[in-house]
Design a protein that fits this description.
46% of the residues are buried. The longest helix is centred in the N-terminal third of the chain and has 5 residues. It is globular, with a radius of gyration of 16 Å. The strands form 3 sheets. It has a 15-stranded parallel sheet that branches. It has a 6-stranded parallel sheet with strand order 5-7-10-14-18-22, with no helix packed on it. By secondary structure, it is mostly beta strands.
Length: 216
């Protein structure tokens, strides 16, 4: 009767302006709400000509939580974000128990572009998730987490292919604390054909990679 949702865990100070519960989507969604909670949904076989093949928000939404949701074969012939494109200069984004499979973009970030408020207190998280077989070996990046504090616990990233800089982390710079943490995660059989798989991009930021598997 009183179930606790992940929204309460991450954003307890407010309620979502809009929610998608237990829905299947076969077309790109562009909600303009100030906050969105996506729970137990399926985005499947979506092809778009614009950024964010399955889910797109630019400068309208300040809080995004995607929980227990799958993105299968979501693709865009646009530039960024085969599955998800999120940008807000005052925003926060959390992906919790998300599955991404066979997603791609025409230029960059085959699964996700997430750019949030650039402060240590702002969340830019992917937690307890799996991202695999996102493949466009002629284009850059599997995903990018840009700005804010990046937390990446218990994530499987495997069998993804891109041109280079497959995993792109650009956290807030704080010389006194870790603002990008990769923990208890597995990175296996990812391919960057001409450049690095990991790109830790913020000069002066403190990163940690602990208790992870990085294989082949």
């Amino acid at each position: 009767l009183h179930s606790k949702t992940a929204w309460d865990d991450y954003f307890p100070e407010t309620s979502p302006a809009n929610s998608f519960y237990s829905k299947t989507f076969n077309s790109r969604q562009t909600p303009s709400d100030s906050s969105l909670y996506v729970s137990n949904c399926l985005f499947k076989s979506i092809s778009s000509t614009s950024d964010g093949g399955a889910l797109y928000s630019y400068s309208s939404m300040t809080l995004l939580l995607v929980e227990s949701t799958s993105f299968f074969s979501c693709k865009t012939s646009g530039s960024y974000g085969g599955a998800i494109f999120f940008y807000h200069s005052s925003g926060q984004s959390v992906l919790h128990e998300v599955c991404g499979f066979d997603c791609s973009a025409n230029a960059h970030y085959h699964f996700l572009w997430s750019q949030v408020n650039n402060a240590a207190s702002k969340k830019n998280y992917i937690n307890y998730s799996s991202i695999s077989r996102c493949d466009n070996s002629g284009r850059w990046h599997t995903f990018c987490l840009y700005n804010g504090k990046i937390c990446f616990p218990s994530v499987n990233v495997s069998l993804n292919k891109c041109y280079g800089q497959s995993l792109f982390y650009y956290p807030f710079v704080d010389s006194n604390s870790v603002t990008c943490s990769l923990s208890y995660s597995s990175f296996a059989d990812n391919t960057a054909t001409v450049y690095t798989c990991f790109y830790l991009c913020s000069d002066g930021a403190k990163y940690e990679i602990k208790s992870c598997n990085i294989l082949r």
